[in-house]
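User: Hey, my collaborator sent me this sequence without any context and asked if I could get a structure. I don't really work with proteins. Can you help?
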Amino acid sequence: MNVIEQAHQAYAPTQTSIRSDRSVEAQLISQITARLRKANTGLRADFPALVAALHENRRMWVTMAAGVADAENALPQALRAQLFYLAEFTEHHSALVIKRLADVTPLVDINTAVMRGLNAQRQS
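Assistant: No problem. I've predicted the 3D structure and written it out in structure-token form, which is a compact way to encode the shape of the chain:
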């Protein structure tokens, strides 16, 4: 690479995308929800993939629960309580799915509702 090409590359405008925390959260929830759906489709669900997706989903919800439990969190108290409850429900329901005593659909529905809320807030 010659000097002119190096200078051109060094001073060329960069294309970095600016994403909000909400859009990142919505994308993460979307990806995990897609994995839950994919692992649970077909005549015989891919149980190891389902367990892996459940684990990812639980980790996400534990992280969100820790976030809303933080006294510095700026969300309204009622919303924080609802999200914390959903994290507890997700933990409990995931254990039932792993034991094959429940279906994954409620977890997908919860994630979908949260994604819709995040996307609605982003658009307003």
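In plain terms: The chain has a mean pLDDT of 84. You can pass these tokens on to your collaborator as they are.
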